Amino acid sequence: MKKYISYIKKSFTIIFILSTSAHAQSSESHESAKTNVFCSTQDAKWEWLKENGTLVEITGKWVSYFKDYDGRYLYLKYFEVDGGAEKISSLRNQCISKFGNNYSYAQPADSRFDRWYLLGTKNGVAAPGHFFMKYACKYCFYRNTGNFEKDHLALSNVDLREFIEKYFEKYY
């Protein structure tokens, strides 16, 4: 029975990976979501952004970007903020006024255990900050090799689709 369940899990994973195309794509939740905001520094120190003792909450939706090329793929996710660049700028300014110039990155999180994600706009441009990216190899699935996760730091606004294309060409 355990072999059968393991086989089904592996099959679904392979089907998911194979269903992605050879281009950088985005996949977005169509449901509105809420998340909290924290402020971070270049060296990854962080503090929750609060107003009157309550965590600042924003609305938008989670968007995932991925690129699959010949069995290898890169994946990252960001929070598309309702209000776009103006809202992100306002959050960054709140971070700086509360914690000082070093805390210039406003970032989304549902809990303190979340990965690093970026705030972004509808056109796929993300604000500066730390972010998590995953690399995986579907042909390495059964050997458990070739997969890694890595945190990055964007020092300025970044077009996520362009970033993935360039990163993939440079390293893979």
The structural class is alpha+beta
Strand content: 35-45%
Biggest β-sheet strands, sense, barrel: 9 strands, mixed
* Average pLDDT over all residues: 78
Sequence stretches where pLDDT stays below 50 over 5 or more residues: 7-26
What percent of residues adopt helix (DSSP H or I)? 25-40%
Please, how many domains?
1
Count of helices? 3
Question: What does the overall shape look like?
Answer: elongated
- What is the succession of H and E elements? HEEEEEEEHEEEEEEH
Describe this structure in words.
The protein is α+β, with helices and mostly antiparallel strands and 172 residues long. The chain has one domain. It is 26% helix and 41% strand. It contains three helices and 13 strands, in the order αβββββββαββββββα. Strands 1, 2, 3, 6, 7, 8, 9, 11 and 12 form a nine-stranded mixed sheet that branches. A two-stranded antiparallel ribbon has the order 4-5. The longest helix is centred in the N-terminal third of the chain and has 17 residues, at 2-18. The relative contact order is 0.18.
Layout of secondary structure:
Blueprint: H1 2-18, E1 24-28, E2 33-40, E3 46-48, E4 50-51, E5 54-55, E6 57-69, E7 72-81, H2 84-99, E8 105-109, E9 118-120, E10 125-126, E11 129-137, E12 148-154, E13 158-159, H3 160-171
Short key terms for the protein model shown above:
41% strand; single chain; alpha+beta; two-stranded antiparallel ribbon; 172 residues; 3 helices; nine-stranded mixed sheet
Quick structural gist:
This protein has helices at residues 2-18, 84-99, 160-171, and strands at 24-28, 33-40, 46-48, 50-51, 54-55, 57-69, 72-81, 105-109, 118-120, 125-126, 129-137, 148-154, 158-159. With 172 residues, the chain is of the alpha+beta class. The relative contact order is 0.18.
